Structure formats: structure tokens, C-alpha cells
Amino acid sequence: MGLLVSDPLAQFDVLVSVWAPPHLVQQGQFAAQVAVSVLDFYTDYFGLPYQLPKLGQSQTQTPRTSALQMI
């Protein structure tokens, strides 16, 4: 299992991390980028910042499916 950590959001100081197997690191990087974009969008949409200091995600893959879980 590998760990990807994005730069904290400068505006909100939220740490976004993704746990992913080594062969899915590229998908994990994309997931971290999307998470940062989504947090920014919802902050603007609702006018409220994300309330927690971090957002963790876990990516797994089985022979038939791939999943991304928020932890």
C-alpha cells in the first residue's frame, strides 16, 4: 500500500491523502486532484469551508471492480 499526499489547500488548510496500491498510484494522484477541486467547489457553493483538518481516501482493486473509499 502506498500513500499519496496532496499539498494542503492554501485557502482552507485541509490535508488530502490517498492510500493506493503501488500499481494504482497514477489513479490515486487523479483522485487527490479531484478531491481538492470538489472541496473548493462545495466551499464556494455552500459558503462553508470543509470542517475537518484532513480528508483521507483509500483505493482498492479486486479482479472485477475498483473502488475509492472516503476514510
* Terminal residue distance: 15 Å
Helical/strand content category: alpha+beta
Total domain modules: 1
> Which blocks of ≥5 consecutive residues have pLDDT under 50?
none
What share of residues are in beta strands?
25-35%
Write down how many β-strands occur, each being a DSSP E stretch of 2 or more residues: 4
Average pLDDT number: 76
* SSE pattern, N- to C-terminal: EEHEE
Question: Per CATH, which architecture?
Answer: 2-Layer Sandwich
Question: Can you tell me the CATH topology?
Answer: Zincin-like
Question: What proportion of the residues is helical, as a percent range?
Answer: 25-40%
The helix count comes to: 1
What's the CATH first level?
Alpha Beta
Protein name: Putative aminopeptidase 2
InterPro entries: Peptidase_M1_aminopeptidases
Keywords: Aminopeptidase, Hydrolase, Protease
GO molecular function: metalloaminopeptidase activity; peptide binding; zinc ion binding
Characterise this structure.
GO terms for molecular function: metalloaminopeptidase activity; peptide binding; zinc ion binding. It comes from Amphibalanus amphitrite. Keywords: Aminopeptidase, Hydrolase, Protease. This is Putative aminopeptidase 2. The structure is a single chain. The protein has 71 residues and is an alpha+beta fold. The chain has a single domain (2-70), classed as Zincin-like. The protein has one helix and four strands. It has one helix at 25-46; strands at 2-5, 15-20, 54-61, 66-70. Strand 3 and strand 4 (66-70) form a beta hairpin. The protein is elongated. The two termini are 15 Å apart.
